[in-house]
Amino acid sequence: MDDDARRNRLRATFDGVAERYDAVRPTYPRVLVDELRRRGGSYPGHRHEEEHMSDEATITTLIHGWAKAVHDGDLDAVLADHSGDIVMFDVPPPDNGVRGLAAYRAAWPPFFEFQRSGASFEIVDLAVTAGAEVAFAHALLRCGMPDELAEHPDHRLRLTVGLRKVDGHWVVTHEHHSFPARG
Q: Is the CB of residue 128 less than 8 Å from the CB of residue 59?
């Protein structure tokens, strides 16, 4: 088999897998999760049910919970499920990133002030890929003040998250937040 035929075969295989994945990719609307929590019910994402969920679903729930915590300014919940050696590359400085949980914790209060002034922080698209011990996710979020979002309705914050499975639980070890340059 020549290289072109091999590439076409791999591309067709990948396209088929990606199409099947998109058709079954689990999502758990935050409203449903919050309502079940309020009623004292269970939802896929409680620690005792994690083993019954796919890793992708577990990570999806983890990231949606993190985004809600960021929007709510709940620092303890933002820090939950993060590694002590977290590395974050964020929109504001420092340009060489934030390293360690203490520095990660210290980076959030200015953003929480921004949130309290009426800013949005909402996931609009999230994709998760998980292996046995390592996973990554990428997302697009509506992040900004209402007037900014009205002026640029398609402007999105880009989020990439790296995770490791530690003692059977997914832990965030890397975050990268960025905005595309506007010309």
A: yes
Q: Are 162 and 82 in contact (CB under 8 A)?
A: no
Q: What's 50-106 look like in SS3?
A: HHHCCHHHHHHHHHHHHHHHHHHCCHHHHHCCEEEEEEEECCCCCCCCEECHHHHHH
3-class secondary structure, 35 = helix
Strand partners, 158: 140, 178
Provide Rg for the chain, Cα atoms: 18
Residues of the chain with pLDDT under 50: 7, 10, 13-50
Does domain 3-178 match CATH 3.10.450.50? yes
C-beta separation of 124 from 141 below 8 A: yes
What SS3 state is found at 8?
Answer: helix
137 forms beta bridges with 128, 161
- pLDDT given at position 182: 79
pLDDT at 53 (0 to 100): 77
Entry pTM: 0.71
Per-residue b or e along 51-69, where b marks 16 or more CB atoms closer than 10 Å to that residue's CB = eebebbbbbbbbbbbbbbb
